[in-house]
Specification:
mainly alpha; 3 helices
Length: about 80
């Protein structure tokens, strides 16, 4: 069985670190670093399966947001 959830989170983290390194201001870095903390804490506050689903969707949206941010900053992502 392939752990797709873990692969998605890993890719989101890689893009998040890359976006953090590209960010120029402290505000951008705070947002890029703060969102994963909130996403990580969602299953702690919502202990039902819905909490895990919301967290997984949050990681996907975070990864896509980082990709869009990197493209906006001129990084060649294909």
């Amino acid at each position: 069985m392939i752990p797709y959830n873990a692969i998605g989170i890993g890719i989101s983290v890689i893009f998040g670190v890359w976006a953090f390194l590209v960010a120029e201001t402290l505000k951008e870095r705070a947002i890029i670093a703060g969102i994963p903390v909130v996403i990580f804490l969602i299953p702690i506050f919502f202990r039902s399966p819905a909490g895990w689903l919301i967290s997984t969707i949050g990681w996907v949206v975070y990864g896509l947001g980082c990709i869009i941010y990197l493209r906006y900053k001129g990084m060649p992502i294909r």
